[in-house]
Amino acid sequence: GYDFAGVLKWFAERADRIILLFDAHKLDISDEFKSAIQAIRKNEDKIRIVLNKADMMNHQQLMRVYGAMMWSLARILQNPEVSRIYVGSFWNQPLIYEGNRELFEMEQDDLFDDLEALPRFAMVRRLNDLIKRAKAARIHSLIVSHLKSQLPMIGKDAKKKDLIKNLDVVFGTIQNQYGVPAADFPDLEIMREKLRKQDFTKFPNYDKALIAKVDKMLSDDIPRIMNLLPGEEQEKNRMGLGTIKGGVFEKVAMPYGKGIDAGIGEKIWIVTRDKSKYDDIFNTLEQQNGKITGRVARDELVKSKLSNNVLGKIWRLADHDQDGLLDNEEFALAMHLIKVKCEGSQLPEELPAHLIPPTQRKED
């Protein structure tokens, strides 16, 4: 076994973005998932939440689920301001309830815009981490040097125990003397526990020059670097390097539609879902160089009991390359069109782009 929460915390500290994925119809948070969220909750600026498959609910159901999710996460994250939640249908299946299509498309664009901007976010985050580390180093230096300075020549152990016991008073003294914000101090109990194991006599003395260097970095160097970011970002944008491009970040239409429109926006040809079944039929038919003639096709297509006029239209749509024969893709397309017609949908006059057989599509 291993410390699962500790491993998650380690990865969370090094990640640029953390996405928590929930199914809208399976919202209960298991104990394991809860412990995982609690392990990473200190990285709230990196966390984004996705409520997926939200198209399976109507407006009212979605509103209730969204509210319940906000309430549950606020308790787990212990943060009154829950991280950004993206609502949508992030898969390649047609929407079940299409009433929220416009919302889902905007949410999808917002999520992808957020991911595309990660290079800049990561740069700013690393600068913020540097600031946090510098402040932590500064305050620790002030604490340990102050503790060492309070040790007497005799009775060091007793004084050490007293200083640890009254560590809150020590923090207050340092805060007043050096003007350190209270938020910069480490956790009191954790610091007490660590100090019990340390030899105060080995702590370094207060180094005024070193503290001055840290102060100069925080007050001068870091702001100067931050001021350079907008110019660098403009230059990267000019060179096309400002955001992540290509692949899944190419904006595509959200899958939708029924009947003849089923499959619009999907990356995979809609006919592929049943193609193995159609291929089994195709392989039993008489073929010429991997294709079947109109006569052979007719004997199979008439089993649908559709009229000759409809079957003639299906043949014209399926024979996309117009060679008077059907290959395995065109035959599968014909069977798909028969299915669409038998389910009560109308056939188009021209074959829609999303139904063109993959091997006959023009390269973009």
List the helices and strands and how they pair.
Blueprint: H1 4-14, E1 18-23, H2 31-40, E2 47-52, H3 59-77, E3 85-87, H4 101-116, H5 118-149, H6 156-165, H7 167-178, H8 188-195, H9 208-238, H10 272-282, H11 294-301, H12 308-318, H13 328-342
Parallel strand pairs: 1-2, 2-3
Strand content: under 5%
Per DSSP, the total helix count is 13
Major β-sheet annotation? 3 strands, parallel
Order of helices and strands: HEHEHEHHHHHHHHHH
**Lateral arrangement of strands in the main beta sheet:** 1-2-3
- Outline: elongated
Q: Over all CA atoms, what is the radius of gyration?
A: 33 Å
Based on secondary structure, the structural category is mainly alpha
Average pLDDT taken over every residue: 85
CA(first)-CA(last) distance:
51 Å
Number of E strands: 3
Question: Fraction of residues in helices?
Answer: 40-55%
Give the low-confidence spans: none
What does this structure look like?
- The protein has helices at 4-14, 31-40, 59-77, 101-116, 118-149, 156-165, 167-178, 188-195, 208-238, 272-282, 294-301, 308-318, 328-342; strands spanning 18-23, 47-52, 85-87.
- With 364 residues, it is mainly alpha-helical.
- A 3-stranded parallel sheet has the order 1-2-3.
- β1, α2 and β2 form a beta-alpha-beta unit.
- The longest helix is centred in the middle third of the chain and has 32 residues, at 118-149.
- The two termini are 51 Å apart.
- The model has no long low-confidence stretch (mean pLDDT 85).
